[in-house]
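Work package 3, deliverable 3.1, input record:
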Amino acid sequence: MTYEEGIFYVVAVLTVFGALGVVLARNVVHSALFLILSLLAVAGIFLLLASEFLAIVQVLIYGGAVTILVLFAMMLTRVRDMPRALNGPQWPLAAIAAGVFGGTTITAVLSTEWPGETDEATVVSIEEIGNVLFTNWAVPFEIASLVLIVALLGAIVIARGEEGE
Amino acid sequence: MIPIDNFLVLSAILFAIGMYGVLARRSALLILMSVELMLQAVSINFIAFAVYLSPETFTGLIFAIFVIVIAAAELGLALAIVLRLYRNRQISNVDEADLMKW
């Protein structure tokens, strides 16, 4: 086992631990904190995949903005009276569905022969990503900014409510 | 270096955990967090395929960027809806929002 594989296993275990914490924690705030751990560990996975740009974006957007937003909404919608069950009555079925899905996918991954070079990740530089993003992918890029502005306006309109409220 | 299978298996595990969270949880916020986990799994898959299988065009990397953009938009809108639901009806669980259930 090379040292890279060692690092991968550490980061992967952190990711899975954080993810399990999100779905199993008994306290919603703990879930959000586990989510931060899991998302930062995924940034580490991106670094191991030799894509620094995505790792930076991951830390900025997920580690910073998304988790803060979720915690903010959590504080605003806290239902204080009587502790309620966090899981619905359907949770055993959910566990079975997720287990079957995970098992099938892992079996499929392990039994597939991947074409091409599967031992070595190739580093893609930030310059290359920028070039491609503004040439081949310029139209989707602009549409993405349109989607963001529409989502922003929609969120403001929905959350603000009617006049005189 | 690390074989691609490791990343794909990790991604499958993460997606399955997120799927369990989406199906089992009642709170809208916890469901949203599980959706984020599933999107992360998809991003890992996209990037792994991009850097291992087609590093010349690396389409997967671009797709991962778009996944992050759409996830941010989705989360902003969904949180606005959750806040609205809480302010109008004082509920934050999805199974209590059954006004349109027949």
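The mean pLDDT of chain B is 88.
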